[in-house]
Amino acid sequence: MQYISTRNDKINLTAAQTIIKGIADDGGLFVPKNIPQINDAFLCGLQPLSYQERAGKILSLYLTDYSPEEIKNCVSNAYGKQFDHNAIAPIVKISDSQYLLELWHGPTSAFKDMALQLLPRLLITARKKSSEKKDIVILVATSGDTGKAALEGFRDIPHTKIIVFYPGSGVSAIQRRQMITQKGSNVDVIAIDGNFDDAQSGVKNIFNDKNFNTTLNNNGYELSSANSINWGRLLPQIVYYFSAYCDMVNNKAIVCGDKINCTVPTGNFGDILAGYYAKRMGLPINKLICASNSNNVLTEFFQTGVYDKNRPFIKTISPSMDILISSNLERLLYHVTKNAAKITNWMNELNLSGHYQIDKFLLTKLQQSFAADWIDETATASAIKNLYTTCHYVADPHTAVAWQTAQNYREKTADTTPMLILSTASPYKFNDSVLSALNVKITSNNDFQLLDVLKKYNTAPIPIGLTSLKTAPILHKNICKTEKMSAEIKNYLKI
Known about the structure:
- The chain has helices spanning 15-21, 40-46, 51-62, 68-78, 113-116, 119-129, 145-154, 173-180, 196-207, 210-218, 231-250, 270-281, 297-304, 329-337, 340-353, 360-367, 377-391, 397-413, 431-437, 447-455, 464-467, 485-493, and strands spanning 3-5, 8-13, 30-32, 91-95, 98-102, 135-141, 160-167, 187-192, 221-225, 260-265, 285-292, 306-308, 355-357, 370-374, 419-423, 478-480.
- The protein is of the alpha/beta class.
- The protein has a single domain (1-119, 229-462), classed as Rossmann fold (3-Layer(aba) Sandwich).
- The strands form 4 sheets. Strands 4-5-15-10-11-14 form a 6-stranded mixed beta sheet, sandwiched between helices.
- α7 links the parallel β6 (135-141) and β7 (160-167).
- α1 (15-21) packs across α6 (119-129), α11 crosses α12 and α14 runs antiparallel to α15.
- The protein is globular, with a radius of gyration of 21 Å.
- The two termini are 37 Å apart.
- The model has no long low-confidence stretch (mean pLDDT 95).
């Protein structure tokens, strides 16, 4: 299996080289040169297996330069006792032919754990395989959940350092507390005076700054990424689509070979793109439904073919979706065009003018696999309330966006295909928003008291990782302008 850049398909790297590098030198994203194909026997063979065993089978199709033993060790260490559910990513039936896929049973209570418990293991294995001598510096821009998950995944991993940038006023109180109390001898956390797109653009600029990278290399460091721009972060997410499908078969919701729809709360487009890879591999997915909040740039794109980030940035109660530059869309566009020059032109247009437009033929092709819709703040709060009232299920605001979008899709299309809705975070990470939506009077602004209040309505226990935050000391207090991000990195690395 070889990997190429979305902007230069003449590049050929192994999986290990791709995971270490993170992003291509030309600013493009790495993609597999060919998407592996599965057959019915392969899919049916996954059904009796554990999540870890299913992961090993899927990963081996892409990590062809890793030995079976290396993959097994990475998987077993990633998906172990740090998850609070034996199924790792269980499905929950919420109504007739509709299931939630709970992806938040890892140590930081968000779906990012599904990838960021595995990525550090893949990266360190890749480092050993490539005889890399430099220490790897992981740069992360986060809209909330990625930061903590990456910090937890890379904490005290040998020969790595991780630096996380987050929007100072663009994450929930619990998300902020998770990051600023992070322990580890190799971690640094810095607030950005700006939004997530500012942080993400700043990180991309640092990757593309040749002088800065030369300075790092001369001091024994090499940059890599834990954002979903890194293939090693995206690849593990493909697994849970296959695993959820098998669980639906095992629960007799479907028969092996039946098609399903998947609704995904979407920001940076990595989570739903993993579903697209699963579909392209042969998993029987009918439609991938892209669910957005008021920052609805993706909905407009899939409906009109115009990507335009020139709009107000709206801070919502689903902050991990508050994104106007969805990086992983570039990967999708490469796979459907196979035209690196065209991708380069579109991304240059986006960088220079803030928008680009695809042709009608390509839009029609995308719409064969994707549908898209969005809901506003009021509808998100109503969805939390309605899901609790009708199904006695407490959902976080991101899951609520997906759930309501799925209902809207079914109503508009009359498509009764069994629906898998991705649940991406524990409601306990968004106590005030969830309680307000449930019309519970909030008499305290203490997040830890609110955890106990929400527990009265939620059958799921409070995650241990959140209760421990109450007494955790604040270890990271730095704030910087986006133009000072590289200086902060040098300061932390003492170069």
